[in-house]
Structure of N-acetyltransferase domain-containing protein:
Amino acid sequence: MGSNNPDSSPDSPPDSSSPLITLTNPTPSELPKIFTLSHPKWGPALTLQDYLDREAYLTTVPLSKNGGITHWLLTLSSPPSPSGERPILASCESIKKRAFYTTPSGSVREGVAHGIASVFTDPEYRGRGYASRMMSDLGQRLKTWQDGGEDRPVVFSVLYSDIGKGFYAKHGWAPFRSSHISWTPSSAAESPRGKGVKTIGYHELAELCAVDERLLKERLAGLAKEDGGKKRHVALAPELDQLLWHLMREDFMTKHIFGRTPEVRGAVAGEKGRRVWAVWTRGYYGGLGKTEGNTLHVLRVVVEDEENTAEEELVEGFKAIVGIARAEADEWRSHDVQMWNPTGLVRGLVEKIGVEYEFVERDKESIASLMWYGEEEGEEVDWVANEKYAWC
Ligand SMILES: CC(C)(COP(=O)(O)OP(=O)(O)OC[C@H]1O[C@@H](n2cnc3c(N)ncnc32)[C@H](O)[C@@H]1OP(=O)(O)O)[C@@H](O)C(=O)NCCC(=O)NCCS
């Protein structure tokens, strides 16, 4: 009632700028209502019940468990009726993450970042400024949300816009580089496994993540040194919990779609100290009926020691890794393999392995966007390791 003519309806929620509206956290009984609204958009590969179960499960996995995830709701400050039921004007969630950043003196510090996801307005309430109000309130709220005191402040928040670059930029999240390499799937027979390459399972990840984190901090320090501390070089931690969040989400999806979970979560080539590896996850938006919605996403690519590894060794190793990724994509009904924002070095490897690929600059979907909470106005931010692992 009244949704087309909100001003004339006594039941219609107030204008989006009204002080009667607030950004708060939904109650446990409001959560399923929020997810039921977004199921057609984000859960078509699952039944409604499985989607509700997945969202509940995603509050129990690494990174988001124990309050790591916060659900947000834009609603009325006071319940409009004695039953206490509040309208769900807009909703989203944020996940607390470890982040690194460089200071003007060139040191690398650790802080808190928030990844924002699932921004949604009930179709009945769209176009009335509720998502805008939620985002402008949320951007400010997250500045101090779950901070770790003076030593571990909240330094930035990120999101991945599926509605282009304009909407979130208007509310303070600047769009960053959003490109990817895409390969088609290819059967294992067409992608023979090279010598010296091994697949990565759950139990290999902890060591790889620890090495990755050390190398990433060194890289940040190097970048700060290069520009004399001019820019803030920032990155989300490519830590074990961050990768497990993706893999356990993948487990839920594959269990429901295929009745089993994959073993191969990436591949690594070369001797310890001179390795190249990639970790990946399968994403299913289309399920088995619409495989165009399914992608095998490379979460993170690491070259352990560029300087001391012969180029042929890197090329051979990377080629074998891409071969395994393509074969996994084929087996697990993915439409393509995507690798986000490769570094110059990895882009060079992509060229040299001789496997046909497509390079895509995205301008509408998954636009990596960042709001910086640094103290100085106008600080220039360089988002390092802007790869899929940071997505949520
Ligand atoms: C995107 C969404 C959250 C906007 O909610 P809303 O409450 O209608 O937003 P507002 O009224 O505050 O603002 C609407 C603005 O969003 C823009 N917008 C909405 N959908 C858009 C789309 N698909 N592409 C580009 N811009 C879009 C409108 O053009 C408008 O821009 P304006 O501020 O310049 O006028 C809502 O349409 C929605 O829930 N969509 C489905 C889920 C989704 O795609 N979420 C975004 C994930 S990144």
User: Anything to note?
Assistant: The chain has eight helices and 16 strands. The domain at 6-178 is CATH 3.40.630.30 (Aminopeptidase). The first helix runs from residue 31 to 42. The radius of gyration is 22 Å.
